[in-house]
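[agent] plan:
  1. take the single chain provided in the ticket
  2. run structure prediction with default settings
  3. attach structure tokens to the ticket
  4. add a short note for the reviewer (M.T.)
[agent] executing step 1
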Amino acid sequence: MKSIAAYVEILALDDGILQRIERFGRVCYKSEKTITEDSAIGFVQRIIQNGHESVLEHGHVSVRFVCDRGITHEIVRHRLASYSQESTRYANYADNRFGREITVIKPCFWQEDSEAYAIWLSAMQRAEEAYLALIDGGAKAEEARSVLPNSLKTELIATANLREWRHILALRCAKRAHPQMREIMLSLLEKLHKRIPVIFDDLAASYLQ
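[agent] step 2 finished; step 3 output follows
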């Protein structure tokens, strides 16, 4: 059995995303003639300040989450996005391509030398043993998955527009969010803020201090 930390990476983000948002957004005001090489940042700042966030829907970002399945159950509740996820119906972890083992996500809220972590690790090992025994006994992957834990590592690709990412991050970076959700969403917010700060300045100021 393998255990890894959760992580997130940006897969697709157009370098010209701010310029596109400005070009499309200025149609609303018929102010296209005021576009310059460096006018996009100011325009986007103003539409966010004015609450005209529908314009942000013209920009999309694709992200890969590598986390446990319990967290992806929460992420996919955000409707205005497209998702592709690793399937436990078709991924047979008893196959050699998976090293004949499952991979689980380390809980960020327990120290590895704690009793709670030891209990969790033992439960993960028993789940792996049960899964492999079922497969070896003739069960299909879609049947044997019944014993797999929420901590099972999964990969989720999510594509959403910038307005929806702002909404997701505002909810999932908040202190009341699940610790493992905050772990990956704070990381995503930091990465997005570095790439396109004007879109995420306010959220970064709220959650990355």
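[agent] step 4 note for reviewer: Strands lie at 2-4, 7-13, 60-68, 81-85, 103-105, 153-161.
[agent] ticket updated
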